[in-house]
Amino acid sequence: MPPFPQAAPHQLRNTQQRTNLTRATRTIRAKRNRLVAEKDDWEQLRRAGAAVKDETLRHLDRYLEQFEAAATAAGATVHWAPDASAANRIVTEIALERGVDEVVKAKSMATEEIGLVEALAAAGINAYETDLAALIIQLSADVPSHIVVPAIHRNRAEVREIFVRNMSRFGRPAPEHLGDEPHELAAASREHLREKFLHTRMAVTGANFAVAETGSLLLVESEGNGRMCVTMPQTLVSVVGIEKLVPTWRDVEVYLQLLARSATGERMNPYTSVWTGAHDADGPQDVHIVLLDNHRSDVLADEVGRDALRCIRCAACLNVCPVYERAGGHAYGSVYPGPIGAILSPQLRGLDDPVDRELPYASSLCGACADACPVQIPIPLILEHLRAKVVDTERTLPPSPERAAMKLAAAVFDRPAALGAGEKLAALSRKVFRGERGITSVPGFSGWFGARDVPAPPAESFRAWWARTDGGRRDDTGDGR
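That's the LutB/LldF family L-lactate oxidation iron-sulfur protein sequence above. Prediction below.
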């Protein structure tokens, strides 16, 4: 994807996508607001959720070691993956050693982040998404546009067309005469996936939480596909970001109240699956946990940016963001779209790429995201912090027309005489720009003006008005008010 300023205008022209997003986000938002209003202690829960995450992050090394010891004692094999390539290699080797050429997969942001499906495919291993929205994305060769509902930008007519056209290439074809009613589409996906669950010997999942005191993993979902993944195959591999830890089961109680309401507007997730190691004749006998860093330690070292690691992937910030609602998730160029992606992706991937340097600016700083966040992540504050980092980074880059213009503007604003001359010149330029038409392009700045219009300069500057009215003390009535 190109940087946000170039990607967003293209996405804005997709009127069907904008309609789909507006309808979906407003529906989820309304459901969330109704259920949050039921909780008299909602703000106390938010503070508790933030406090538990902060405690965990302060002592993350200790909790990770505790988790590893407990999970190993329960019969799981724990792997440490410093980066995406290491995690992909670990999962691929587990599959190859067991002679597996197909795996079923629960929806997981961590595996999207590292590109696991592509890495497995390169080794000749097909990974089949089992979450309905993730399946839609896979069948259409699309990319996710939302953290909780990856196919939120699709409507049911589009989903029906995707099933009819592409489902047979991945397994059981769509039924003849398939309609676009939700129950028909759900039934078609169940029939398609049932074959995969019954015949595939290995599953890959993520986890919403990892409990340090017992070495347990939790997966919350709405469809039951995750439950099938963690119970039916012989081999289970879970890729888990190191920030997913919580110290105790008492802490999990806080997040289960926060997550369901914030993510899908439900009091409780329909399926909450928990597994701890391996147990004879009960579920997978070959259990692996891949603890993924992938620059999370770098984020942890930033005293301001580390608050992004509190994120529980509920997407409440996306559902209230006016920028996301209009531009959609694809404009962000990351598997983490919306406000949380604008602060998380640049920290995980660095600021070397123009895509990541633009993300902190993909926000109006209205603050709705911070108000909605169930763990009180100060997203606008982190955006401002990252913008300052972007400015520092760009000082080391080759000059660009935009940076040259900003330097010139700074020099003018620093010199009153130059500023006064510039204001007079701007007033004269109204004739060029025909009154209220505004400035829509400037040679050499087509990219910048492609996403922005500048209002026409005023006929008189404030300083000129101030001088003309003797400091604003005179008016037409002469009474000095």
